[in-house]
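A quick aside before the break. I want you to see a complete sequence-to-structure record at least once, exactly as it would be stored in a machine-readable document. Don't worry about memorizing anything.
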Amino acid sequence: MSDLINQASLQLNEIIMDALGVLVAEEAVPAVPLPAFNIEIPADKSHGDFAANTAMVCAKAFRMPPRKIADLICEKLQLEGTIFERAEVAGPGFLNFFLGRKWFSDVVKNVLDEKENYGKTDLGKGKKVLVEFVSANPTGPMHIGNARGGAIGDCLASVLQWAGYHAEREFYVNDAGNQIEKFGKSLSLRYMQLCSEKGQQLIYANQNDTEKLCAEIYSQSGEGQDFEMPEDVYLGTDIIEHAANYYHDHIFELQDVSEEERRKALVDYALPLNIAGLERDLKKYRIVYDNWFRESTIHAKNETKLVVDKLMESGHAYEQDGAVWFKATEYGLDKDFVLRRSNGLYTYIVPDIAYHYDKLVTRNFDKAINVLGADHHGYVPRLKAALTALGVDASKLDVVLMQMVRLVRNGEVVKLSKRSGKAITLVTLLDEIPIDAARFYFNLREANSQFEFDLDLAVEKSSQNPVYYVQYAHARICSLIRNLAEEGVNIPDSADFDLLSNPREIELIRHLAALPKEINLAAKSYDPAKITKYAIDLATLFHRFYDGCSVKNAETPELKNARILLCVAVKQTIRNVLTLLNIEQPEKM
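That is the input. The structure line, written in tokens, reads:
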């Protein structure tokens, strides 16, 4: 696994340092500590393949104008035997460097040699990283926010794997606490409504149509209607469906038992179905988790009590008015917060503290990454403060905050309503648009950016649709290879890539070389959007090359062979990127 851009940057750093060493030895510049300088790839390639600001940052230390320093460095550069063919000074003192042809040839060879491994790096050195994402409330179906979080989290885990980390995916199942109490109450109310006289009438009228029964009950659930529901319950039709299905199998079995027993029986029936549904729907979305971690295991092991006791014993928590408070102000937060209420119940953050202690201490992950909604921004500092108080290195927990997405159809925002139960779910979204489009689109922007998802564009088969555009580039190369085979032209084993000197060829090869660097940048910034952008840019550069540099009718057979293998290298790179994103790579479109 090689990164030719990084290798070139390292070699260039050595070349510049050697030149400075000569200047110091000749006393042309003073022997003082050298400031750090940057080596970058210029946006305008007419300014070179690489640029260094060495002269600019050394001006103060050397007490010389940057331009003079640059001229001195340029005179002492030894480029012979390196991958660079020339250097020049530009503007007030920038050093611009131009790569030789061999480097570009090596890029193509590198892709062809590494094949499906091209782009992989060793940045992570095998460190263990746990990526937790979606972790949707199991009391109902996944909504559109979970669709974005799923695509971001899954692709982020893949990016980290490609960057040399040992990455695992985890879903945290909130199967305890207030939301389960609310779930049980909602199910119980709906079940008892079905047992009522009005409910019995509807059951009799809709004996073989559960969907219609649920719809009628739902339509009559408003204030003052037959099936009125209080504010503090779940109102979705999925709750009615669970209650109706339980009633169908057990009739009046729970009508006369205690409320506590009824709720427990209904939760024990419905919750496993919901969790199985989450797993099934996520698999449809091509997301498979390594771990499904249940909150109930934390409570079963009494880890909530252990966490609070440890904070009390270490002096990081105190008791006041019967409640236990965490000394959050000692960690720079505005105010202390409650860990255990005066009634003995733990607040929602305590199981989360215990869960993250389990991640970073018990299971000893080097890094825990959570993909959360932007509304969690205030929760993260509290969690980190508590972990620090427990002796955990809180810098090992990183959080990707994700903005909600707006769905657009026919140029207008699609209105969603959680309370009405009519929100667009992950399943309904995937019934409407291709999975490839969903996974690609939700990674088009960095997680913390506002994002509009155009439902019409996602199904459009045109260059305006980014995922179609990238997949078409792959299919176009496959078509070229098939057509050449039909004409009796086989893919050559090798070619003289030094012949690829057209500016469109050079730009395409330069972009091929950038994949390992982009993988590393995406891994460091937790931003899979860098990979979708890379894929779109690669498709653009390929189409531009293919339309301007004939493959079949190249000027010479040698150039034809070089261009065929360049196409094969592009195909392999697109395939690798789409594989990383878990998106299909069609050979025909």
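Two observations worth writing down. Residues 393 and 576 are 35 Å apart (CA to CA). The mean pLDDT is 94. We'll return to this after the break.
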